Amino acid sequence: MSEVKSAKRVLEILRFFAQERSPASLARVSAALSFPKSSCLALLETLMAEGYAYQVDGRYYLTARWLHEAEAVTAHDPLAQRLRPVLEKLQQTLGETVILAKLAGTKVVYLDVVEADHVLRFSAHVGQVKPAHASASGRALLSVLPDAEIGALTRAMDFERFTAATLTSPAALLELIGEGRRRGWHVNLGEFEADTLSVAVPARVGGVPVAFVVGAPMSRAAKHVDRIGRELARATANLRES
User: Fold this and answer.
1) What is the pLDDT of residues 3-31, one digit of tens each?
2) Count of domains forming the chain
3) What range does the domain containing 203 cover?
4) Which residues make beta-bridge pairs with 107?
5) Which CATH number goes with the domain that contains 180?
């Protein structure tokens, strides 16, 4: 999937200030993000001209315009509005982190997250991206696609290894997709992070393929994978093809 460098750099500036949490000089931003000073200055000046940034004592910071526009977008997200109650009920029933995910090329993006209350929990956030080959959500979302489309996406994957359990071949991925289809839910046991697991079930909501995912520490949930899968399948059955 092609990337536009300037768009990516704007997002990196946004993430930088979210972590920095204070005004920063051009030199600080440029050094932290490894941007040429000239490019960094042009981006920051553009953000200022559009009302997304301002200067204080010669340093840059972002305005609340980001928040206001993000709130407007979030308030009218049709999938999140409709499915948030389902996520919350699943979280209460299972006691673990529950996620709504969607395919984005060869990766998966999290659209909504309801985290568990446990101190030791599967941590996730909205907008987080995971590789499709190393996630239960990825296999669940691939499973509802036509075989030809699955094959094309599989050939485009780099199959990066994250743990000893990570899949490293198209054949292994296709085999697990088939197993998940037959079982009714898809399972990831330590493939992205060795100490976590995830269970996912696909559904179509308004014609849009999504995945409902439960993530949990391996130490607490490994014995309950099938129960989690059955509960996910039951809770999402009435959403499929709706």
Assistant:
1) 688 898 999 999 999 999 999 999 999 99
2) 2
3) 77-239
4) 104, 131
5) 3.30.450.40
Classify 129 as helix, strand or coil. strand
Tell me how long the chain is. Answer: 242
Q: What is the SS3 assignment for 45? A: helix
**Residue 51: left (phi > 0), alpha (psi -120 to 50), or beta?**
left
Reported as a single tens digit per residue, the pLDDT across 62-89 is 999 888 888 777 766 777 777 889 999 9
Q: Which element (helix H / strand E) includes 220?
A: helix 218-221
Q: What's the whole-model pTM score?
A: 0.74
Query: CA neighbours within 13 Å on the CB side: how many for 33?
Result: 30
Residue that is last in its domain, among 69, 92, 120 = 69
Quick one: CA torsion of 230, 232, 233, 237, rounded to 10 degrees?
140
Is 137 found in the same domain as 88? yes
DSSP run (H or E) holding 92: helix 78-94
Burial of 145 (0-12, 13-18, 19+ CB in 10 A): middle
Same domain, 52 and 92: no
Can you say whether the dihedral through the CA atoms of 71, 74, 76, 81 is positive or negative? negative
Cα separation, 211 vs 203, whole angstroms: 6
Q: Are residues 235 and 152 part of one domain?
A: yes
Statement to judge: residues 91 and 27 lie in one domain: no
Residues 95 and 141 occupy one common structural domain? yes
Helices (H), 157-214: 170-183
